[in-house]
């Protein structure tokens, strides 16, 4: 019950109403005490006026007047003369004097709380102003037992009334909250649950209907979110189906193109001049198609495996990449320079690190080869207390603006004609798996520099 919105509203309402009633109770009990004492002063004044009317009252009548007034004696000050009007024996010593003429609200509240907290019977002196200007001052001596008992009775009635009002108010608010807030919130939650069970079903999308501004804004935001998510899920499903089809086609096409490459080897040995002139173009076209199929298949894999870390020699890995790329370059005038310090060791997955650097080196080599000019691709490395940094720099023509804007976007970040941009995408994903990154440091007519950052320790830089 207390864990529900309605239950908490019920408890909070009861607490706040009771707190308000307590704030009302304190001045009310002080006012009750003030009225009680004023009433005793007024009764004493009436008794003293009876004595003024007849100076020779009998002792029994005087005692009866004091008993009716609830006091022991009465002092009336008229015309600057202080006169003891009525008197009877006082059973004990007077413990306090209270002047109602100059008492402020704070003083009255303090005296009332002290009287409630003092259970014994005491004798006090009370001073006030006579009613109807019947004198300058009236003073009485009285017991506190009757006063405190009357205050307690009054306080109990106030507290009972407060409790009834609190419970009634809390119940009303409980019902109102359930109707105005809880029911609409449960409706929103119900829509969310139905949508979560079948997000592709557009019938589960909420239609805003609440009249409460805040709830309607929440419903509208939820409707927008559900609509966008449903469209995204449909698009994702279509892309997944398309990706599966592309992967199958690419796999079969790669096999066919590989066979075609074998035939082109024989075509190149043909004596026909036209065939010999067109064969290299055919070989290049088939090679690019095979590369595209292989890249698409690699990117279409479900997920790269988590890296298996080991201490590797970076110089040896870069040397293997250089040899492989120089063989692939054939007669092109591209030089690959390995400037990595021989003793440098770092912690990484050797296979994935090979692929990261190879993709960057291959992209650089192909960019230079496409210009038909000579060039250099250099790989360097350094380390700090926090990370290892590997740079791949080339003297190529630089990246075009479109390639820079879509650098790590698959099928959009290719810098050369026919490129897919998958090399950088794959390199970036593998680097992130190591907790690192691949960044473009600079590019321009003088060349391009990429930097690989691999963190040490727990993978944070």
UniProtKB/TrEMBL annotation:
Q: What is its EC number?
A: 2.7.13.3
Q: Which regions form coiled coils?
A: 215-242
Keywords for this entry?
Answer: ATP-binding, Coiled coil, Kinase, Membrane, Nucleotide-binding, Phosphoprotein, Transferase, Transmembrane, Transmembrane helix, Two-component regulatory system
Which InterPro entries does this entry report, sorted A to Z? HATPase_C_sf (IPR036890), HATPase_dom (IPR003594), His_kinase_dom (IPR005467), HisK_dim/P_dom (IPR003661), HisK_dim/P_sf (IPR036097), Sig_transdc_His_kin-like_C (IPR004358)
Q: Which Pfam families match?
A: HATPase_c, HisKA
Q: Which reaction does it catalyse?
A: ATP + protein L-histidine = ADP + protein N-phospho-L-histidine
- Know the name of this protein? histidine kinase
Tell me what organism the protein belongs to. Answer: Leisingera caerulea (Phaeobacter caeruleus)
């Amino acid at each position: 019950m207390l864990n529900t919105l309605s239950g908490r509203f019920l408890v909070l309402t009861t607490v706040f109403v009771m707190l308000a009633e307590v704030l009302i109770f304190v001045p009310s009990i002080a006012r009750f005490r003030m009225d009680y004492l004023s009433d005793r002063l007024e009764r004493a004044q009436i008794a003293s006026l009876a004595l003024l009317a007849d100076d020779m009252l009998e002792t029994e009548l005087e005692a009866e007047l004091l008993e009716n007034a609830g006091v022991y004696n009465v002092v009336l000050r008229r015309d600057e003369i202080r006169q003891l009007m009525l008197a009877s024996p006082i059973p004990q010593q007077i413990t306090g004097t209270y002047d109602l003429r100059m008492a402020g609200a704070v003083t009255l509240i303090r005296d009332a709380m002290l009287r409630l907290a003092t259970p014994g019977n005491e004798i006090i002196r009370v001073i006030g102003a006579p009613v109807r200007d019947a004198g300058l001052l009236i003073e009485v001596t009285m017991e506190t037992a009757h006063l405190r008992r009357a205050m307690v009775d009054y306080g109990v009635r106030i507290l009972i009334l407060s409790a009834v009002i609190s419970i009634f108010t809390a119940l009303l608010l409980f019902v109102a909250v359930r109707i105005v807030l809880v029911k609409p919130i449960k409706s929103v939650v119900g829509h969310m649950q139905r949508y979560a069970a079948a997000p592709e079903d557009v019938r589960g999308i909420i239609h805003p209907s609440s009249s409460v501004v805040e709830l309607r804004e929440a419903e509208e935001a939820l409707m927008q979110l559900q609509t966008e998510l449903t469209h995204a899920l449909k698009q994702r499903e279509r892309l997944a189906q398309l990706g599966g089809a592309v992967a199958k086609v690419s796999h079969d096409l790669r096999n066919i193109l590989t066979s075609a490459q074998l035939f082109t080897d024989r075509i190149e040995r043909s004596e026909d001049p036209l065939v010999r002139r067109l064969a290299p173009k055919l070989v290049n076209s088939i090679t690019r198609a095979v590369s595209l199929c292989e890249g698409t298949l690699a990117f279409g894999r479900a997920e790269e495996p988590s890296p298996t870390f080991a201490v590797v020699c970076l110089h040896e890995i870069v040397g293997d990449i250089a040899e492989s790329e120089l063989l692939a370059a054939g007669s092109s005038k591209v030089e690959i320079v390995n400037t990595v310090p021989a003793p440098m060791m770092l912690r990484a997955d050797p296979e994935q690190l090979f692929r990261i650097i190879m993709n960057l080196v291959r992209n650089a080599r192909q960019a230079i080869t496409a210009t038909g000019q000579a060039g250099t691709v250099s790989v360097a490395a350094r380390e700090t207390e926090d990370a290892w940094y590997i740079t791949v720099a080339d003297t190529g023509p630089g990246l075009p603006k479109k390639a820079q804007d879509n650098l790590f976007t698959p099928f959009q970040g290719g810098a050369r004609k026919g490129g897919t941009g998958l090399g950088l995408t794959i390199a970036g994903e593998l680097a992130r798996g190591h907790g690192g990154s691949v960044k473009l440091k600079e590019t321009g007519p003088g060349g391009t520099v990429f930097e690989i950052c691999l963190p040490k320790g727990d993978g944070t830089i």
